[in-house]
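Q: I'm writing up a methods section and want to include an example of the input and output format. Could you take the sequence below and give the corresponding predicted structure tokens, formatted cleanly so I can copy it straight into the document?
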Amino acid sequence: MNDFLAMGGYGAYVWSSYAVFFIVLALEALAPRATRRRVLAELRGRLKRRDARNNGPSA
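A: Here is the clean output for your methods example:
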């Protein structure tokens, strides 16, 4: 098992490459959710400002 993990002396490179790959893969999977959340919050803010402007007190 140790020979498999050592990968002929290249184990540190191989396993760190796998780790970086899976971290990037996770970030790529989560990024659209964060973008969607940010865009929706921005649109809610715009709608609130528009409604406040249109439905504000008329003098």
